[in-house]
Amino acid sequence: MRHLIDPMDLSVKEIEHLLDLADDIILHKEKYQEVCKHKKLATLFFEPSTRTRLSFEAAMMELGGNVLGFSSANSSSATKGESVSDTVRVVSGYADIIAMRHPKEGAPYAATRKVTVPIINAGDGGHNHPTQTLTDLMTIRREKGRLNNLTIGMCGDLKFGRTVHSLIKAMSRYENINFIMISPEELCLPDYIIKDVFEKKNIKYKNVRTMEEVMPELDILYMTRVQKERFFNEADYIRLKDSFILDERKLVDAKKDLCIMHPLPRVNEISTKVDDDPRACYFKQALYGKYVRMALIMTLLGVSADEDR
Ligand code: CP
C-alpha cells in the first residue's frame, strides 16, 4: 500500500507515468469513466479548500467512484476532541482511499500509521502540498514542453507557502533549474529548504526583492498569496500583504512565452487584467489538478483502464 505525503515519495519516473496518464485521461476521458466503480474516496478537510477538495471529488466522480467526507473540522467530531489518528482509523473502514488536509504539519504522516487504505496529503500547514506539486509539474510540462532547463521565479510568501516548498523539492531533481526567490526579507524561504535542497544538491538560486529586476530572465513566474491564516500577528500581515502585485506594466519586459502560475486562491497579487494575457496559466493549472488527481487515485488504488476493458 502506497501513501503520498511528501512530493519526494514519488520517483521522477513515477511522476512521469502520472503525468502521462493524466495527459491520456484528457484525450480519452471515456476510457476512464468506470475504472473506480464501487470505490470510495473520503475527503477529510480540517482546513478550508476549494480547488483541492473539489478537484479530488470531481476526479473520483469522473472515474465512476463515490465520495464521502467533511469540509471543515467544525462539522466533524474533531470539535468533540477526537484525535486525527482515531478519525482516519475509523474512516479507513468506510473508504478505499483518503485525501486529508490539516493545519498541523505532519498530521497526514502521523495518520498513515493507523490506516489500512492509502492516504494522500492534501496540504499540511506550511509544510507540503504534493498534489499541488503534481498539478504544477503537469502545467509546466504541458505549457513549456519540458521539466529541465528552466528559470523559475517564485514570488510572495516563500516562508509559509507549502506549494512553494513542495515544488522546489520536486523541481530540484530535474536538470539545469535556476531558482529565483522573490520575497520580502520576512517571508523568505525557510533555512531547511536552502540547506537540504539548494546547498546539499549544489543548485543555483538567488534571492531578490523585486520581480521587475528578474522578469526578463524568467521562463516561469510562480506567484503566491500572502497567507493571512499563517500569521500570528495581524499588523505584520497588513504590512506585507501587498508586497508584490503582478500587473500588465510589470510584464512589459517578460519573455513572450513566460508561463504565469499561481496555486490559487488569489487575493490581489495578480491584477485581473493579467487574466486575458495568453501567458496567464493559473486557471488551466487548476483544471490540470483534476486530471492529475484522477491519475493519482488510479495509481494508488492500483486500477487501470486496460484492466477494466
Ligand atoms: N491550491 C489550493 O490548494 O487551493 P485550495 O486551498 O482552494 O484547495
TrEMBL record:
Chain residues that bind L-aspartate: 80, 162, 225
UniProt-listed SUPFAM superfamilies: Aspartate/ornithine carbamoyltransferase
UniProt feature coiled coil, ranges: none
Superkingdom assignment: Bacteria
Domain Aspartate/ornithine carbamoyltransferase Asp/Orn-binding: 149-299
A GO BP entry: amino acid metabolic process
Keyword annotations of the record: Pyrimidine biosynthesis, Transferase
Domain Aspartate/ornithine carbamoyltransferase carbamoyl-P binding: from-to ranges: 2-141
Catalytic reactions of this protein: carbamoyl phosphate + L-aspartate = N-carbamoyl-L-aspartate + phosphate + H(+)
InterPro entries in the record: Asp/Orn_carbamoyltranf_P-bd (IPR006132), Asp/Orn_carbamoylTrfase (IPR006130), Asp/Orn_carbamoylTrfase_sf (IPR036901), Asp_carbamoyltransf (IPR002082), Asp_carbamoyltransf_Asp/Orn-bd (IPR006131)
Pfam family, one: OTCace
Known pathway: Pyrimidine metabolism; UMP biosynthesis via de novo pathway; (S)-dihydroorotate from bicarbonate: step 2/3
Physiological role: Catalyzes the condensation of carbamoyl phosphate and aspartate to form carbamoyl aspartate and inorganic phosphate, the committed step in the de novo pyrimidine nucleotide biosynthesis pathway.
PANTHER family membership: ASPARTATE CARBAMOYLTRANSFERASE (PTHR45753:SF6), ORNITHINE CARBAMOYLTRANSFERASE, MITOCHONDRIAL (PTHR45753)
Subunit-structure text: Heterododecamer (2C3:3R2) of six catalytic PyrB chains organized as two trimers (C3), and six regulatory PyrI chains organized as three dimers (R2).
Name of the protein this chain belongs to: Aspartate carbamoyltransferase
